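Field guide to reading this record: the first block holds the primary sequence, the second block holds the structure written as C-alpha cells, and the final block holds curator observations. Each block starts with its own label. This record concerns Thiamine diphosphokinase, catalogued under organism Ignatzschineria indica.

BLOCK 1 — SEQUENCE
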Amino acid sequence: MILLPGAVNFEAVISMFGDWFQDAMVIAVDKGVDKAEALLTLNKVNKAREVAVDFWVGDFDSSEKLEISPTLYREKVGYPVEKDEIDTELAISLAREQEIDQFLLLGGVGGRLDHQAALLFLPLQYPHTTFIHTDGIETLHFIEPGRDYRFTPPLGTTVSLIALRDLRGVNLSGVKWPLVQYNLAVGSGLTYSNEVVTENGINLSIREGEAWLYLLSENSKRSL
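BLOCK 2 — STRUCTURE
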C-alpha cells in the first residue's frame, strides 16, 4: 500500500479493499506520510501492527514542515531532491526489491497534472504487476492482456476504459455499451463514460495492449 499526498476517503477505501489493511506493507511517499496517524487508528483492529508506515520514502521537499512522530514509521529512506525518478518510483522500486508485485496507491488522484500522468503510466514499467489507484471515490484497475477480469460495482457506476497503448480484441460486458473483439486506438474517447447496467457485474478482457479500467460511483458529484 502506497500513501500519496492527495486526499483519501479511508472509509470508502476500506469498504472496497479491506483486506489490504490487514498485512500489506505500507510505504508513505513524502507528504503522503500525513495519513499515517489516521491509518494507525484504522488499523487498531490489527493488533499485530505496531506502526502505521513501514517505510517513509522521498526527498521530503513537500513534507519538511510536517511534524511526524517517529513512532508512526519504522524506517525513513531519504533521497536527494535532484534525481532521475519521482518519489513514487522509488517507493515501488523499494517494494519490488522485496518481491512485492501488487500495489494499492492511495491519494494519487488529482494534484499536479505532470505527477498524475506519471502515476497513470507507472504500470508500463512493471510488467505482470497489479496496480489499483484510488482515493475512495475514483478507482482505477490496471488491465493487462490475456486475462479475464470481473468487477462488481453498483448499478449506475460510471465505467471508462483508458487505453495506455493501442488495444486489440477488447471484450466488455455488463455495461450500457458493450464491446466484442473491439480494436481501440490509444487516445480514443469512445470507451469513456459507459455505465454499469447489471448486478451481475462487468466482465473485461483485452487480447493486446494495456489499459486502466476507471470506476466512478453514481453518487459522486465529480465531473469535468
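BLOCK 3 — OBSERVATIONS
Residues 2-136 form a domain with the Rossmann fold fold (CATH 3.40.50.10240).
The first helix runs from residue 10 to 17.
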